[in-house]
């Protein structure tokens, strides 16, 4: 049975308890469910079906079990493993202290844009299908990279650090 990761937008320990989130996914019929970190990453097994169908099923299950839903983006673990092997940051001249982040979209971007897209200490270094790869240098101005990503792609996305994606793929 294929393994998937659901990346949920806007989850934190303050608005969703991981054991409850796990139970919601199990109630939906997903198996071998694990939450990874406390930021809305749920890894699970499911019959081979479309990502869109899994997203709808997960959102409905959260609404039923938690009384609310979180915007959900699903990727097969196999696709994440391939993504991690590509190292989309290799060609970018990033400072050593730069943090790497991946934004997940439901649809490939329709807009044509020239890379890199830069805003202050953040830049979008590449895009591949429904994933956007950015980097930023942490600073006093807050999450500049999120403003850049949302300005470019809208708010129906969710973003994880490169390290978090590695942990989810390995779970």
TrEMBL record:
InterPro entries: DUF1697. Pfam families: DUF1697. This is Uncharacterized protein (DUF1697 family). It comes from Rhodoferax saidenbachensis. It comes from the Bacteria.
């Amino acid at each position: 049975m294929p393994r998937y990761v659901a990346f949920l937008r806007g989850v934190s320990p303050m608005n969703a308890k991981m054991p409850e989130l796990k139970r919601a996914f199990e109630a939906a019929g997903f198996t071998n469910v694990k939450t990874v970190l406390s930021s809305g990453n749920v890894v699970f097994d499911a019959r081979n079906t479309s990502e869109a169908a899994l997203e709808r099923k997960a959102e409905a299950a959260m609404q039923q079990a938690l009384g609310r839903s979180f915007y959900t983006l699903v990727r097969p673990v196999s696709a994440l493993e391939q993504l991690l092997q590509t190292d989309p940051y290799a060609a970018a001249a990033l400072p050593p202290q730069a943090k790497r982040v991946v934004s997940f979209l439901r649809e490939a971007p329709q807009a044509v844009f020239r890379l890199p897209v830069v805003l202050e200490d953040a830049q979008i270094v590449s895009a591949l299908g429904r994933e956007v790869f950015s980097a930023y240098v942490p600073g006093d101005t807050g999450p500049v990279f999120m403003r850049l990503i949302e300005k470019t792609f809208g708010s129906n996305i969710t973003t994880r650090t490169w390290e978090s994606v590695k942990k989810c793929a390995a779970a």
